[in-house]
Amino acid sequence: MSASYDHLIKLLLIGDSGVGKSCLLLRFSDDSFTPSFITTIGIDFKIRTIDLDGKRIKLQIWDTAGQERFRTITTAYYRGAMGIVLVFDVTDERSFNNVRNWIKNVEQHAHEGVNKIIVGNKCDIEDKKVVTKDQGLALAEEFEVRYVETSAKSNIGVEEAFFSLARDIKKRLIDNMDANPPSSQGRGVELSSTTNGNYMKSSCSGCVGSK
């Protein structure tokens, strides 16, 4: 029986507590939103399969806790990630400034060359916005990554953020395979395993939630 997808891509959502990581994931995976604040405990994940440039891509998206006490749990998942979504809250300057610290964590724990995107969430709250789009773009340019403003509540930019990151990952991994073709014949190459090391095991601490 053939798989229902062509490639498996694993993404990791990181950022301060309360920036809306779980809400973004809920909007993208289930097209729903809840205003309730339920803190993610440890790590959770959801799956969505998308059509991307003629291929079926299964996205396995891991949602991490932003609190310091869970940092040792979440860093264990960096190595299995093919893409990192760095989320901050455009109404919270501290969460924006902390993006640099999160990027340091990525550099320390994730695979070299892992694709990244910076996401400024809650862009619908115009009257409380303290981080401008230009500031977000400048930070993204500094680290040579994409920047997208989103609103999980109003469903603004969410699809763009995940699709653009998935497309970048797909291109990178296929380019890597073209540069280093497998020596054995008769078997295809799994984007999820041969190009990116260890598979992320689902040892979750029972976590749901929205921020």
Verbal overview:
Keywords: Cell membrane, GTP-binding, Lipoprotein, Membrane, Nucleotide-binding, Prenylation, Protein transport, Transport. This is Ras-domain-containing protein. Its main location: membrane. The protein has 211 residues and is α/β, with parallel strands linked by helices. The protein has one domain: Rossmann fold. It is 30% helix and 22% strand. It has 6 helices and 6 strands; from the N terminus they run E-H-E-E-H-E-H-H-E-H-E-H. Strands 2-3-1-4-5-6 form a 6-stranded mixed sheet, with helices on both faces. A hairpin with a 2-residue loop joins strand 2 and strand 3. The chain is globular. It starts with 6 loop residues before the first strand and ends in a 32-residue tail after the last helix.
